[in-house]
Structure prediction request, 397 residues.
Amino acid sequence: MIATRAKGLRYNVLGRQHILSVLRGGRRHVGGGDAARAKAWKTEEAGGMEQNLPLPLCKVDEKRSSVRLGALVRAYNELRGAIAGELSSSPSFKRDDHAPNEENLCTELSWLFEDSVCLDPAELRRLLRSGGNECRSVEGEDEGRVIRSRLTLNEFQDVWHLRLRERLPIQYILGMASWYDLELRVGPGVLIPRPETEVLLDLALGALGEERGLGSHPWLDLGTGTGALAIGLARHSEGACGSRVRVEAIEASENAAAYASENIERYGLQDGVRLFRGSWFEPLEAEERHRKAFGGIVSNPPYITDEEMIGLQDEVRLHEPRSALFGGATRGMDGLLHIVEESPKYLVPGGFLGLETGGPIQATHLGSLMRGQAWDRVEVKPDLQGVPRFLVARTRK
Ligand SMILES: C[S@@+](CC[C@H](N)C(=O)[O-])C[C@H]1O[C@@H](n2cnc3c(N)ncnc32)[C@H](O)[C@@H]1O
Prediction:
């Protein structure tokens, strides 16, 4: 059961397609003050970790340092060659059955270099590796060629040390995560959005496509984190139902809300997504106009149980915020139960509820609670691995 549930919150080594375009496209400056932000990371985002590295990478000027290509390739080869040894000798990797494997880490190392070095990624990949996976050396004119880089050679080592020894997720090092078709700012203090949750966005968009009238009401994203679901809904609702849905996003954590705010701004959605700080429906409670007002509610609340917390991968357990993971004493369902109970007060008749759960046990339990109450069409839907994970329902008309 632990393995199944934890799958929804496995450390994500996939989903990379867009990060590079952000790092290279100059949009990283949105939000302003790279130097100040990089400095702030050391104190605020590093969550108490002692370090002096210019992180996150997406906030660092890509022309900050000069490195010689020959030395860069040697540094890459050295770090890459050491991965297998680190995996077999490090107690942290040895005791973690779900730890990233050598192939995952090699991929991440090449991301780190691609994101740091001011060279066309295809050219860099060619320089770092010949046809297969063997390492290359650079000779002749290329050896001494000076290129610009965000990191110095020593910093590559230090950052990679953080990845391997501290198990710091690569997304926190880069400062970006790729999710659905979005590139979202992330860092310690906010959950890295998972590929599984993309299915929840598709389910919500499917409901909008099926009943286009739901798009004429605002939608709600509870526990928005980076803003992933709220931004996805705002951007894709028009394609699904012909009108752009307004979204209200609620988040309890101040840190996470700051990332959501930055991401909403990066996508120019300040008018389409309104962010509230508070616990679940609490920011809406005071105003009567919110009652029976929402066309749909989506949420991926914390759902990990106490026992499962210990079995999580180190990347998740040590670095992602506990408040985004731990679902409380009711077998991880504190948030889920509250949302199921309160949602009918806020949804229009026929309104959609879509929830991510910890897996079959939670989904089945919640589904049976909902059947026969204020709900119709209660269904459990599978995630990308086929694990029953999402609960969808409509309020009775
Ligand atoms: C599993 S994360 C999901 C984040 C984001 N929706 C996603 O899918 O990537 C759960 C989020 O709920 C937030 N949260 C936890 N308790 C909350 C509460 N009582 N009210 C509002 N948000 C809460 C956490 O801070 C965290 O950002």
The chain is about 45% helix and 15% strand. The chain has two domains: 19-170, 189-395.
